[in-house]
Design brief:
The chain is α/β, with parallel strands linked by helices. The protein has 15 helices and 21 strands. Helices cover 29% and strands 22% of the residues.
């Protein structure tokens, strides 16, 4: 068996890992690198069509692997619906390369809704989406048996994968943390399927710990802010993670939750419509998009800026960072903006850092509260988890400081920090 890595050492995101065995290929994620693709990510998130780009050019920039890697098609497991784990599929789809996406149904629903709201529904129709059972083995081609295991991350539908080949067993963590699902529980679920893992491919984002909050602390912090402010409450968040949306709902139970249409569609798609009171669509838009019309047909009440302006003390408005300019009226006294992402390193967090605070401080002149909980396990937690799993080989990806693993596991001999194009048996 061969493992090939098409991701950069010392970079978070852009996961593209290729497993090859018996002449068959299976990809673990196929994501965009934020560092390399900022000019592509902004238009995707704003719902704009990307121009068709040559595969060779994208490969030269190391945005995708060499085209010969998927000349017989692209079969991939997606760990979750963040762009840095699935966003590069636009390239092979544009060139009519056969793409088969394997993931549990909730992950596929979010990939579908995010591609639709980002103007990629035309491409999505070219892909084959194959739902997989959770926590049960399923077969991919003749060589690979796969078990999706649900993990705690910053978006619904997040999974690690156990992959069995004739020669080795592999555990690919995807992105994970241990706030709401403990490492002990994850180890128990792995042990239901195997008593030995040969290879671990792990994220290691938490080596730079930027925020001490755990997910279970977020609601308390929001409630603390709530006591101080009675004007308009705007929350910039990521409702594809419904645990965070439920915390916001619980904290502001007496107010209406008005959700931007993009996020409302994500919630509607994954069956969480109870978290939406009204749907926000800017009155400046000339027409509803197809997925917004679907929300309207599903009897959601659609409101615009005037409704929010006239009900500032009775609503909480949930907005993505790239829609902030639509609220161009004066906010009432004692208004507040809450920025509540699962930082670091989701695509919305990447965008807001350069835009959102400037907008709120200079133009709206409201106080800002940052209430985040990281979507990633701390470095020592990852190391302790790996130690208990006791694999033969460890590959560290998705990290700004991957070499820190040597400090936490000094006695381990087979730790690898892949560079772009590295191949290992």
């Amino acid at each position: 068996m061969l493992i090939a890595f098409y991701l950069e050492k010392g970079e978070v995101g852009g996961n593209q890992v290729l497993l090859s065995s018996n002449g068959e290929n299976l990809w673990l994620d196929f994501g965009l690198s934020f560092r390399k693709t900022r000019r592509y990510i902004d238009p995707i998130l704003e719902g704009k069509q990307l121009p068709k780009m040559k595969l060779e050019k994208l490969s030269e920039e190391k945005i995708i692997p060499p085209p010969e890697c998927f000349e017989n098609g692209l079969r991939l497991l997606i760990s979750h619906a963040h762009l840095d784990h699935y966003g590069a599929i636009f390239a092979p789809l544009e060139h009519d390369i056969k793409v088969e996406i394997f993931a549990p149904e909730d992950t596929l629903k979010l990939v579908k809704s995010r591609m639709e709201t980002s103007g990629q529904s035309r491409l999505l129709r070219k892909a084959t989406l194959i739902p997989c059972p959770k926590n049960r083995k399923f077969k991919v081609l003749d060589t690979f048996e796969v078990v999706p295991i649900e993990v705690d991350h910053s978006i619904d539908g997040s999974y690690s994968y156990l992959i069995f080949t004739p020669k080795k067993s592999i555990f690919y963590t995807g992105d994970f943390r241990f706030d709401l699902i403990s490492s002990e529980r994850l180890l128990e679920e792995i042990s239901e399927h195997t008593d030995k893992v040969d290879v671990v491919i792990t994220e290691f984002t938490g080596v730079h710990r930027r925020n001490p909050l755990r997910e279970q602390d977020v609601q308390k912090e929001i409630e603390r802010v709530k006591k101080k402010f009675s004007g308009l409450i705007t929350v910039f968040s990521t409702p594809s993670y419904t645990k965070r949306m439920q915390a916001i709902r619980s904290a502001f139970g007496e107010r209406e939750l008005i959700v931007d249409s993009t996020y409302a569609y994500h919630l509607y798609t994954i069956g969480k419509s109870e978290l939406i009171d009204k749907v926000f669509v800017s009155e400046k838009k000339s027409a509803l998009k197809p997925w917004e019309r679907e929300l309207e047909k599903s009897k959601f009440e659609i409101v615009g800026e005037d409704y929010i302006k006239n009900h500032q003390r009775k609503v909480v408005v949930i907005l993505p960072p790239y829609h902030k300019l639509k609220l161009d009226f004066d906010f009432e006294s004692r208004s507040v903006a809450i920025i509540s992402f699962t930082e670091p390193f989701d695509e919305d967090g990447f965008l807001f850092q350069s835009r959102l605070e400037r907008f709120l401080m200079k133009w709206r002149r409201v106080p800002i509260y940052q209430i985040h909980a990281s979507g990633h396990a701390e470095a020592y937690e990852v190391a302790d988890f790996i130690e208990k799993l006791n694999p033969h080989d460890i590959y560290v990806v998705h990290s700004e400081g991957p070499e820190a693993i040597y400090n936490l596991l000094p006695h381990r001999k087979n730790i690898h920090v892949p560079t772009y194009g590295m191949k290992s048996n």
